[in-house]
Amino acid sequence: MMDRSLIFAANWKMNLGPTEARRYAERFLSLTSPIKSRSLWFFPPAVSLGALCEATRGRADLRIGMQNVHWEPKGAFTGETSIPMAMEAGAGAILAGHSERRQLFGETDEYVARKTKAALNLGVTPLVCVGETLGERDGGRTESVIVRQLTPVVDALEPAEWNRVVLAYEPVWAIGTGKNATPDDAAQIHELIRMELGRNGVAVRVPILYGGSVNSGNVLSLLARPQLDGVLVGGASLDPEGWAELVGLS
Ligand code: PEP
Known about the structure:
By secondary structure, the protein is α/β, with parallel strands linked by helices. 41% of the residues lie in helices and 16% in strands. The chain has an 8-stranded parallel beta barrel with strand order 1-2-3-4-5-6-7-8, surrounded by 4 helices. α1 packs parallel to α2 (46-55) and α5 (109-122) crosses α7 (142-156).
Protein backbone atom coordinates (compact mmCIF):
# COMPACT_ATOMS: atom_id res chain seq x y z
CA MET A 1 0.00 0.00 0.00
CA MET A 2 2.72 2.44 0.98
CA ASP A 3 4.98 3.86 -1.65
CA ARG A 4 5.62 6.98 0.38
CA SER A 5 8.01 7.59 3.21
CA LEU A 6 6.46 7.22 6.67
CA ILE A 7 7.58 8.25 10.14
CA PHE A 8 6.62 6.12 13.13
CA ALA A 9 7.34 8.10 16.27
CA ALA A 10 7.18 6.51 19.72
CA ASN A 11 6.58 8.80 22.68
CA TRP A 12 7.41 6.83 25.81
CA LYS A 13 6.29 9.68 28.09
CA MET A 14 7.43 8.98 31.70
CA ASN A 15 8.05 5.27 31.12
CA LEU A 16 11.11 3.05 30.62
CA GLY A 17 14.25 3.99 32.53
CA PRO A 18 17.77 3.36 31.16
CA THR A 19 17.85 -0.37 31.97
CA GLU A 20 14.40 -0.97 30.49
CA ALA A 21 15.32 1.19 27.48
CA ARG A 22 18.38 -0.99 26.78
CA ARG A 23 16.29 -4.16 27.09
CA TYR A 24 13.61 -2.69 24.84
CA ALA A 25 16.21 -1.75 22.22
CA GLU A 26 17.74 -5.19 22.16
CA ARG A 27 14.34 -6.82 21.60
CA PHE A 28 13.07 -4.23 19.12
CA LEU A 29 16.23 -4.37 17.01
CA SER A 30 16.01 -8.15 16.86
CA LEU A 31 12.46 -7.87 15.51
CA THR A 32 12.94 -5.16 12.87
CA SER A 33 15.23 -4.36 9.96
CA PRO A 34 15.77 -1.02 8.28
CA ILE A 35 13.31 -0.23 5.48
CA LYS A 36 14.12 2.65 3.16
CA SER A 37 10.66 4.18 3.21
CA ARG A 38 10.27 4.10 6.98
CA SER A 39 11.92 6.06 9.80
CA LEU A 40 11.52 5.05 13.40
CA TRP A 41 11.71 7.80 15.98
CA PHE A 42 11.84 7.34 19.73
CA PHE A 43 11.24 9.90 22.44
CA PRO A 44 12.39 8.25 25.69
CA PRO A 45 12.55 10.03 29.05
CA ALA A 46 15.62 12.31 29.17
CA VAL A 47 17.54 10.01 31.53
CA SER A 48 17.14 7.08 29.11
CA LEU A 49 18.20 8.92 25.98
CA GLY A 50 21.92 8.16 26.24
CA ALA A 51 21.29 4.48 26.96
CA LEU A 52 18.89 4.17 24.04
CA CYS A 53 21.28 5.94 21.66
CA GLU A 54 24.10 3.60 22.64
CA ALA A 55 21.94 0.51 22.40
CA THR A 56 20.68 1.42 18.92
CA ARG A 57 23.93 2.68 17.42
CA GLY A 58 24.38 1.57 13.83
CA ARG A 59 20.69 1.59 12.94
CA ALA A 60 20.45 4.57 10.62
CA ASP A 61 16.67 4.22 10.32
CA LEU A 62 16.27 5.17 13.99
CA ARG A 63 16.25 8.68 15.39
CA ILE A 64 16.19 9.38 19.09
CA GLY A 65 14.76 12.62 20.45
CA MET A 66 13.97 14.56 23.59
CA GLN A 67 10.43 14.90 24.91
CA ASN A 68 11.24 18.36 26.21
CA VAL A 69 14.08 20.86 25.96
CA HIS A 70 14.81 24.46 26.89
CA TRP A 71 15.56 26.91 24.10
CA GLU A 72 18.55 28.47 25.90
CA PRO A 73 21.90 26.67 25.52
CA LYS A 74 22.69 26.79 29.27
CA GLY A 75 21.93 28.68 32.44
CA ALA A 76 19.86 28.85 35.59
CA PHE A 77 16.88 26.77 34.47
CA THR A 78 16.54 24.08 37.15
CA GLY A 79 15.19 20.82 35.84
CA GLU A 80 15.60 21.68 32.17
CA THR A 81 17.84 20.21 29.47
CA SER A 82 19.33 22.29 26.69
CA ILE A 83 19.42 21.26 23.04
CA PRO A 84 23.26 21.18 22.81
CA MET A 85 23.35 18.90 25.89
CA ALA A 86 20.71 16.64 24.37
CA MET A 87 22.66 16.55 21.10
CA GLU A 88 25.83 15.59 22.96
CA ALA A 89 23.90 12.64 24.43
CA GLY A 90 22.76 11.63 20.93
CA ALA A 91 19.47 13.44 20.31
CA GLY A 92 18.53 14.19 16.71
CA ALA A 93 15.02 15.50 17.33
CA ILE A 94 12.86 17.23 19.91
CA LEU A 95 9.16 17.26 20.67
CA ALA A 96 7.62 20.69 21.11
CA GLY A 97 4.09 21.46 22.18
CA HIS A 98 2.96 18.00 23.19
CA SER A 99 -0.48 18.44 24.74
CA GLU A 100 0.71 17.07 28.09
CA ARG A 101 3.43 19.73 28.19
CA ARG A 102 0.91 22.38 27.17
CA GLN A 103 -1.78 21.31 29.63
CA LEU A 104 0.19 20.08 32.63
CA PHE A 105 3.37 22.15 32.48
CA GLY A 106 2.26 25.47 31.03
CA GLU A 107 4.03 25.21 27.68
CA THR A 108 2.67 28.18 25.76
CA ASP A 109 2.45 28.69 22.00
CA GLU A 110 5.30 31.17 22.43
CA TYR A 111 7.55 28.59 24.17
CA VAL A 112 6.80 26.10 21.41
CA ALA A 113 7.96 28.62 18.83
CA ARG A 114 11.18 29.35 20.75
CA LYS A 115 12.03 25.67 21.12
CA THR A 116 11.29 25.05 17.45
CA LYS A 117 13.50 27.92 16.32
CA ALA A 118 16.33 26.90 18.68
CA ALA A 119 16.20 23.32 17.42
CA LEU A 120 16.45 24.48 13.82
CA ASN A 121 19.31 26.83 14.61
CA LEU A 122 21.23 23.96 16.18
CA GLY A 123 20.40 21.34 13.55
CA VAL A 124 17.97 18.97 15.27
CA THR A 125 14.51 18.24 13.91
CA PRO A 126 11.57 19.74 15.77
CA LEU A 127 8.40 17.63 15.87
CA VAL A 128 5.79 20.23 16.70
CA CYS A 129 2.43 19.06 18.06
CA VAL A 130 -0.88 20.87 17.69
CA GLY A 131 -4.41 19.82 18.53
CA GLU A 132 -7.68 20.85 20.11
CA THR A 133 -9.39 19.74 23.33
CA LEU A 134 -12.82 18.15 23.33
CA GLY A 135 -14.44 21.40 24.54
CA GLU A 136 -12.77 23.32 21.72
CA ARG A 137 -13.86 20.74 19.19
CA ASP A 138 -17.44 20.67 20.46
CA GLY A 139 -17.48 24.45 20.44
CA GLY A 140 -16.50 24.49 16.74
CA ARG A 141 -13.10 26.02 17.54
CA THR A 142 -10.76 23.33 16.15
CA GLU A 143 -9.59 25.47 13.27
CA SER A 144 -9.04 28.64 15.30
CA VAL A 145 -7.13 26.72 17.99
CA ILE A 146 -4.82 25.12 15.47
CA VAL A 147 -4.22 28.42 13.71
CA ARG A 148 -3.50 30.06 17.10
CA GLN A 149 -1.01 27.30 17.98
CA LEU A 150 0.72 27.51 14.61
CA THR A 151 0.94 31.29 14.34
CA PRO A 152 3.94 31.97 16.65
CA VAL A 153 5.85 29.14 14.97
CA VAL A 154 5.04 30.52 11.53
CA ASP A 155 6.12 33.98 12.69
CA ALA A 156 9.41 32.67 14.13
CA LEU A 157 10.51 30.61 11.14
CA GLU A 158 11.72 31.58 7.69
CA PRO A 159 9.58 29.82 5.05
CA ALA A 160 12.63 27.80 3.92
CA GLU A 161 13.17 26.42 7.43
CA TRP A 162 9.94 24.46 7.17
CA ASN A 163 11.69 21.79 5.11
CA ARG A 164 13.33 20.69 8.38
CA VAL A 165 10.16 20.65 10.48
CA VAL A 166 7.73 17.80 11.15
CA LEU A 167 4.27 18.47 12.58
CA ALA A 168 1.91 16.21 14.48
CA TYR A 169 -1.82 16.69 14.69
CA GLU A 170 -2.84 15.27 18.04
CA PRO A 171 -6.41 16.00 19.13
CA VAL A 172 -6.19 16.16 22.92
CA TRP A 173 -9.42 14.18 23.30
CA ALA A 174 -7.81 11.25 21.49
CA ILE A 175 -4.55 11.04 23.46
CA GLY A 176 -4.44 8.11 25.84
CA THR A 177 -8.22 7.80 25.75
CA GLY A 178 -8.67 4.91 23.33
CA LYS A 179 -10.71 7.24 21.06
CA ASN A 180 -8.85 7.92 17.86
CA ALA A 181 -9.90 10.50 15.29
CA THR A 182 -11.46 8.88 12.23
CA PRO A 183 -9.24 8.78 9.16
CA ASP A 184 -11.57 11.40 7.61
CA ASP A 185 -11.24 13.74 10.60
CA ALA A 186 -7.47 13.39 10.65
CA ALA A 187 -7.13 13.88 6.89
CA GLN A 188 -9.34 16.97 7.01
CA ILE A 189 -7.30 18.65 9.77
CA HIS A 190 -4.03 17.75 8.05
CA GLU A 191 -5.34 19.53 4.97
CA LEU A 192 -6.37 22.51 7.04
CA ILE A 193 -2.86 22.71 8.52
CA ARG A 194 -1.31 22.58 5.05
CA MET A 195 -3.64 25.31 3.82
CA GLU A 196 -2.72 27.49 6.77
CA LEU A 197 1.00 26.99 6.08
CA GLY A 198 0.44 27.73 2.39
CA ARG A 199 -1.42 30.93 3.27
CA ASN A 200 1.70 31.95 5.17
CA GLY A 201 4.05 31.39 2.27
CA VAL A 202 5.32 27.93 3.25
CA ALA A 203 5.84 26.28 -0.10
CA VAL A 204 7.39 22.97 1.05
CA ARG A 205 5.23 19.97 1.88
CA VAL A 206 5.72 19.59 5.65
CA PRO A 207 5.25 16.01 6.88
CA ILE A 208 2.32 15.78 9.30
CA LEU A 209 1.91 12.83 11.64
CA TYR A 210 -1.34 11.88 13.33
CA GLY A 211 -1.34 11.03 17.04
CA GLY A 212 -4.02 9.90 19.48
CA SER A 213 -4.76 6.30 20.47
CA VAL A 214 -3.11 4.80 17.40
CA ASN A 215 -2.72 1.03 17.66
CA SER A 216 -2.21 -1.99 15.41
CA GLY A 217 -5.95 -2.18 14.83
CA ASN A 218 -6.41 1.32 13.43
CA VAL A 219 -3.02 2.31 12.01
CA LEU A 220 -3.63 0.99 8.52
CA SER A 221 -6.92 2.78 8.01
CA LEU A 222 -5.33 6.02 9.21
CA LEU A 223 -2.23 5.66 7.05
CA ALA A 224 -4.37 4.79 4.03
CA ARG A 225 -5.03 8.56 3.87
CA PRO A 226 -2.31 10.22 1.81
CA GLN A 227 -2.61 13.33 3.98
CA LEU A 228 -0.89 11.42 6.81
CA ASP A 229 2.88 11.01 6.74
CA GLY A 230 3.12 8.81 9.78
CA VAL A 231 1.98 8.47 13.35
CA LEU A 232 3.03 9.62 16.82
CA VAL A 233 2.18 6.95 19.35
CA GLY A 234 2.27 6.80 23.13
CA GLY A 235 0.72 3.76 24.81
CA ALA A 236 1.08 1.34 21.91
CA SER A 237 4.82 2.04 21.61
CA LEU A 238 5.72 0.90 25.11
CA ASP A 239 6.30 -2.74 24.45
CA PRO A 240 8.87 -3.72 21.84
CA GLU A 241 6.88 -6.60 20.37
CA GLY A 242 3.71 -4.55 19.88
CA TRP A 243 5.60 -1.59 18.45
CA ALA A 244 7.63 -3.79 16.10
CA GLU A 245 4.36 -5.32 14.90
CA LEU A 246 2.72 -1.93 14.40
CA VAL A 247 5.60 -0.42 12.43
CA GLY A 248 5.73 -3.58 10.33
CA LEU A 249 2.07 -3.43 9.29
CA SER A 250 2.42 -0.74 6.67
C1 PEP B 1 1.15 10.75 22.50
O1 PEP B 1 1.67 10.62 23.59
O2 PEP B 1 1.57 11.59 21.71
C2 PEP B 1 0.00 9.89 22.16
C3 PEP B 1 -0.57 10.05 20.99
O3 PEP B 1 -0.40 8.96 23.10
P1 PEP B 1 -1.39 7.71 22.85
O4 PEP B 1 -0.92 7.02 21.60
O5 PEP B 1 -1.24 6.87 24.08
O6 PEP B 1 -2.77 8.26 22.68
